[in-house]
Amino acid sequence: MTDHTLARADEVLTQLVELIETARTLPMSSSCVVPRERTLDLLDALRDVLPPELTEARRVVTQRDRTLSEADRLAEQQLRQAHEQAEAALATAQAQARTIREAAEQQARASQAAAAAQAHELVESGRREQRQLVSADAVYQAALAEAARLRAEAEEDSRATLAAARAQADTLTSQAHGYAYATLAELVEQLQRLAATAENARDALGQPRP
Fold first, then answer.
1. What are the C-alpha distances in Å from 122 to residues 7, 37, 137, 182?
2. What tens-digit pLDDT sequence spans the chain (210 residues)?
3. Collapsing DSSP states into helix, strand and coil, what is residue 25?
């Protein structure tokens, strides 16, 4: 912009300021009345002296607005894409979490079933062992009863055998005593006969000579 153009622009602006300052004020208001034609003429003159850079500035501003609009559109598109990607990632994460949860629940159910089966087996094993122990105790009690019966029978048989042996011993002793008494009596009788025979023989021989 040249000095002349600057001077002309400053002059037009000064005239506009003076026009507004000297304008008639409306009663009871801060507004004023300016001559339209004079004001428009001054504005047209100001437009004529404005530099060409202003047109370029308008173009730049328009380009800037378009650039900002495009940037907004791209930002909105990227935001929408990011939102869609986030929703897709969220859906994928939810699906993976659901799969993991279902697998964990299935594994938990399998573990619970295995634990329940093991507990049931332990209970049944305990019951079988209890029945075996009860059966073993019954067998033991029966064995004790049988042993007691056999011992009683043995004691009874022993007492009977001992009584029979004693009776037989008494009989044999009595018979032995009788036999010995008869034998001794017979021996005494024989001895008596021998003694009598010896006495008779001695008497027959007479008294021996001196």
1. 111, 112, 22, 86
2. 567 777 877 888 898 888 888 888 878 877 888 888 888 888 888 777 776 656 665 676 788 888 888 877 887 888 888 778 888 888 898 899 889 988 888 988 988 888 888 888 888 988 888 888 777 678 788 888 888 888 888 888 878 888 887 888 788 888 888 888 888 888 888 888 888 888 787 777 766 555
3. strand
Give the residue ranges of DSSP H helices in 22-52. 36-49
Secondary structure (3-state) at 51: coil
Contacts of 12 (CB under 8 A, 6+ apart): 42, 45, 46, 49
CA pair distance 38, 12, nearest whole angstrom: 11
> What type of residue sits at position 119?
A
- Report how far residue 160's alpha carbon sits from residue 153's, in angstroms, rounded to the nearest whole number: 10
Q: Is 140 left (phi over 0), alpha (psi -120 to 50) or beta?
A: alpha
What are the domain boundaries of the chain?
Answer: 3-77
First to last CA, the chain: 221
Q: Other C-beta atoms within 10 Å of 42: how many?
A: 20
Tokens encoding 94:
């939810």
Which residue is listed with tokens 């008779």? 200
